[in-house]
Amino acid sequence: MTRRIGLLGGSFNPAHAGHLHVAATALKRLRLTEVWFVLALGNPLKVEHGDYDERAASVGAQIARYARFKLCEIEAEQGLSYTIDTIATLKHIYRDDAFVWLMGGDNLETFHRWRAWEQIACAVPMAIIARPGARPFQSVFERRFAFARLAERAAPSLADYKAPAWVYIRAPLHPQSSTHIRNGVRQSD
Q: Does residue 114 register a pLDDT over 80?
């Protein structure tokens, strides 16, 4: 049986309840089998990534009680730095699985700065989950791939679509962010 796996990539510096909210929303709304937290070895667009082992432990602590959430350390294991390479490697290793790239809506503003961002959009279907601060339908990605946007009601079958295909998932907004946590900004849960 084909697994339907959501890939939530990030530095997770640190992992927090907002990440869990995105993953849980995707798991339910996309009818996924699992969500893998793909821990970035490093982020080429960031100067400070934080200690890798501390970030891995942070993800592990956040997902420990969720049987369908997994920590994926493929980037460290394979020496990968770019999402396009990570996706290609995962698709090669797990040929029988269907992948969906998960992204918080707040990351869309800079998605066009990622290496091979258009290839990423053409490699796997994508689900964009509403996040505080996001300006839906304003990004370069959303304009470039407007033709591939699916209605939100198609979300349960997104993993079955051939990329490019994406859906914007409206959901209650969770206020936590890694940046606020690192900067000591008080947030409500």
A: yes
